[in-house]
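Appendix B, example 12.
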Amino acid sequence: MSPGDTDTVHALMSDPLVMRHYPRPWTRDECIRWVEHNQRLYEERGLGLWMLTLRADGSVAGDCGLTIQRIEDEDEIEIGYHLVPKLWGRGLASEAARATRDRAFAELGLARLVAIIAPTNEPSANVARAIGMRLEREMEWRGRPQGIFALDRGSIIASP
C-alpha cells in the first residue's frame, strides 16, 4: 500500500458492502490516514496491508496484511483483509490470508496472530478458520461486540 493507492483504498473502504461490519464506510481523509499509517508500519516494523491484484489482469482485488491492534491493554498483531464484493466467495481472501500468515511466522518471526471479527461476519470467520485460527474469546472492542480469533506459531504443523 503506497500513497498512489489512496483512490483505490477509498473505493474499497467507502463501499457500504465492504464496510457493513464496521461502524460506517470510511471517508477519503480516513483512507489517506490509513495509507500513511500503513507506510509507517512498513518502515518501522515490516508490517502493514498490501494491495491485492488479480494475476489475470492486474486489477485490484482488495487488501490483506498485518497491523497492530490494542486489545485489553496488549498490542496484538492482527491479520486483516478486505475484498471487492464481486470477488467474494472465490477463496481469494483465504489465499491471501494464508500467505500473510506464513510470512508473519516464517519471515517476521511473529509468535501469534489475531483477527478481530464481528459475530455477524461469518465469511471473515471462515477465512480465519481456513488459516488455522480459532475463536479465542468474545468481547466488546471499540464499543462493538467482536470475536477474537487467534493462532500461535507453535500450533502450525502444516499449512491447512
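The longest helix spans residues 28-45. The radius of gyration is 15 Å.
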